[in-house]
Amino acid sequence: MARSATSTPARPRSGASVRSRELPLEGRVLLLVTLA
User: Fold this and answer.
1) Residue 17 CB neighbours (<10 A)
2) SS (HEC) of 14-36
3) Mind listing the pLDDT tens digit for each residue in 1-34?
4) What pLDDT is attached to residue 27?
C-alpha cells in the first residue's frame, strides 16, 4: 500500500510499471498511449 501510494503521486510512470506487471495487455496499451 505504501509503495503504490508513494509511486502514484511521486511518478505516474512507476504506477504504470506496476499495472503492466498485473496486466501486461493493459500495460502495453497504457505505454502506447503515453508514448503517443
Assistant:
1) 14
2) HHHHHHHHHCHHHHHHHHHHHHC
3) 445 444 444 555 555 555 545 667 777 888 888 8
4) 74
Give me the residue label for grid cell 496499451. Answer: 29
In Å, the largest CA–CA distance within the chain is 30
The C-alpha cell of 7 is what? 509511486
The cell 503504490 sits on which residue? Answer: 4
Using CA atoms, how far apart are residues 29 and 24, in angstroms rounded to an integer?
A: 9
For the question of whether the overall pTM of this predicted structure is more than 0.70, the answer is: no
- The pLDDT of residue 16 is 58
C-alpha cell at 6: 508513494
Cell numbers for 2: 505504501
